[in-house]
Amino acid sequence: MSEVQSVSTLPGTETTTNEEITGQTEDDVTSPTSSSTGIELVKEQKECSSIQGETSSAEGTEITTTKERTQFPYFKVGVVEDRNKRYRRSMEDAHCYFYDFAGVEGQGFFAIFDGHAGKQAAEWCGNHFHETFQEVLEKNPTLPIPEVFNLTFAEADQRLNESAGKHSGCTAIAALVRTDICDECNESEGTEIVARNGTDSAKKTYKRSLYTANVGDARAVLCRDGVAKRLSYDHKGSDVQEAKRVVDAGGFVLNNRVNGVLAVTRSLGDCSMKGCVVGAPYTTETALTEKDTFLILACDGLWDVCSDQEAVDLVKDVMDPQVASEKLLEYALQNFSMDNLSSWSRRMRAAAHMNDLIWHE
C-alpha cells in the first residue's frame, strides 16, 4: 500500500503536498493554561439502524452521545459535549454529522462550530452549514471538494452577515469522508474487500478520501501510523502570516488579537470585523490507507491544553470512539481548560480503514 497522498490549499498561498498538509507544527502553537471542574454528562443511545445523523444547537446542555453503523463501509462516531459550567455560563459550541450524506452511500459529513460574542452564528451553522454544503455540491457536481468547501464557507458567511445574529461569530472545522467503489483500482489506490452473500462472493476495492476545511483555531488531527498529522491551520493573531494579512487589510493586531478584540483572524460571521476577519477556509485532501487509524475534530477548548500528539497518544489504544471522546474531554477538564468542550471521534476498523472518528468541540 502506498503512502497517503494529500493536498492542501490556503487562499492566497500555493498548493502543497504530503507532509506539508499539516500547515503548522506543534512547535508553532503556544497553549495558555486555564482551570475547570468535573464533568456532568447525560448519555443517549439510539438504535444503529435508524440513525442518519445529528445536528446540535448551542443550548448549554451537557450531553454525551454515541452513534454507530456496523456495516462496512459505515463507521462509528463518538460525541461528547460539556459546557464547563465553572467558567462558562452558556454553551456556544454546535455540531452536525451525517451518514450517507446527500444520499451517497458511505459518505459522511462532520462539522463543529465554536461560537463567540453570542451563540447565534454557531447555532445557525450547526443547523444549516451542511445544507449549504449540499446545495453547493448539487449545483457544482464536478467541482473538486476543496472548491466546494471554499464556496460553502463564502455562502455561509454571507448568510450569517444578513442574519439577526450577524455580530456573533464562530470558528469551524468540517470534514467529508467519501467512499468510492472501484472495480479495477490498483492495489495502491484502495482497500480490497471480499463481500460474501450466500454462495456468491465478489471482490470490490474501496477507495477512501478525506477532505477538511477550517477557519479559526478549530483543528482536525489524523492519526497516521501513530503519528499526529494536522489537517487544519490555526488562524490566530499570533501567526505572522495572518497578522500581516490583517494589517494589509487595514486592521491591526494588539496582544495577538485583531484590532485588540478577536483572537482568531478567520471566522464565520463577525460582520463588524469583516474587512480584516475573513471566512476563507484552509482546505486539505487526503487519500486514506490502512495507516490512518482515527481522526479527531476539536475546537480550542481541547487544544489550549493538549498538543496534537498528546491527544493521539491518549486515545490511540482506545478502540471505542465514545470512550476515546470522553477520555479527551476528561483530560481537557483536568488540565484546566476554561472553554466550552465537545469531542467527536472516529476510529478505523482494520479491514475498512478510517471508519471511526473522534470529535471535540
UniProtKB/TrEMBL annotation:
Biased composition (Polar residues): 1-12, 48-64
Alphabetic keyword roster: Hydrolase, Metal-binding, Protein phosphatase
UniProt cross-references to CDD domains, sorted A to Z: PP2Cc
Cleaved signal peptide residues: none
Disordered as annotated region, ranges: 1-65
Gene3D superfamilies (UniProt xref): PPM-type phosphatase domain
Family stated for the protein in its record: Belongs to the PP2C family.
Domain of life of the organism encoding this protein: Eukaryota
Protein name, UniProt field: 4940_t:CDS:1
Tagged with keyword Metal-binding: yes
Pfam families registered for this protein in UniProt: PP2C
GO MF, one annotated term: metal ion binding
Regions of compositional bias (Low complexity) in chain numbering: 13-24
Every PPM-type phosphatase domain range: 76-348
Organism this protein belongs to: Paraglomus occultum
